[in-house]
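Appendix C reproduces, verbatim, an entry submitted by the partner laboratory led by Prof. M.T., so that reviewers can inspect both the input and the predicted structure.
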Amino acid sequence: MPASPSLPPRPEPGRLPFAAPADLAERLAATRAATLRLIAPLSEEDCQVQSMDDASPAKWHLAHTTWLFETFVLEAFEPGFMPFDADYRMLFNSYYHAIGPQHARPRRGLVTRPSLREVLRYRADVDARVLRLLERSDGPPQLRQLVWLGVQHEQQHQELLLTDILHLLSCHPCPAQAVYAPDAPQPALADPALRADLAFEGGLVRIGHAGDGFAFDNESPVHKVWLEPFVLRNQLVSETEWLEFVLDGGYRQVRWWLSAGWDWVQRLGIAAPAYWRQRKDGAWVRFSLRGEVPLSDQAPVVHISLYEAAAYSAWLAHRTGASWRLPTEAEWEHAVLARPDALQQVDDAAWQWTQSAYLPYPGFRPWDGPVQEYNGKFMAEQMVLRGGSCATPAGHARVSYRNFFPAGARWQFSGLRLAR
């Protein structure tokens, strides 16, 4: 479609607190290329389909990440800016109301046009224009900061793309036909013989992001938190540990569950973690990006909701007589900072649920300009996860990183590290 002759007002660049790296152009190119490698195993049909409301088609991820560079970088800084296609401003806007209207999230899979080929052409066009801007020596600092934000944003969508693909392929009735890639990311394993409980004294500690490296606005400011003495498990709960909960009727006994969690279990008929399947011979397997794999005592349980994590903790506490529970996000961050070499599966296995509600830190201030909607507007009815997963791009996670999802979400690589 031709570009509209009348354009909306250009957004004001946000004042961002982090510094962009000197090799920003190389980082941008590498990140954009990595996204294209992720879709290489997919057919055009794979890239179009939306398997549930919470997931997005791969084609939409490709277009939306490009939309952010076009809208927040090119529109603000490119002389004589004209959009690649004016309709894309609405089609690929996710939730930025200050920018304008958005196409309804549950209907993204119905956007068959533009084609995948046209979206890839859109990406190439925007990439070339952004790189030309970066080549200019007179660009303002906000330009480089917004490009660096766009890189971080794309890395977030690389993880979402993999988890959305996993959900889509899990819907296929023939598992052998639904393998994404034989070398696809898998959660990091742990040696059960090294499983241990680590004690921490607690006290007045500092958490939050410090320094001029990149961090999202919700990670700041640094602030003090009082912690009582606590214990944290050095590994994530494994699949075979979780299987004991399943076989003991954990999903059928109301006493382990939060009220909202029990309603969730009953309403949706939940009986095991997402993607768990029981074969005719009684063996349990997990559907993964590599196809069906057997459960393991080395592999962490993944694709569980906060409701399930809380129920398992209550069940284990009753069974062992120890007060097992989910950690707070402050306990988690302090433990990783205090004993980084003692904790395993920190950011390469599964995001770890905490009992902390996703709320602003004391003194929190969202970014200025159009990017102010990035995180702060979601600080209600969400719970914090910490760490990172096997699908998180290398170098993207930080100790201060705050991921967040509703309590019933489990299509992400989410797991559990016990505390007491």
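The chain has two domains: 24-171, 192-415. Additional entries are available on request from the coordinating office.
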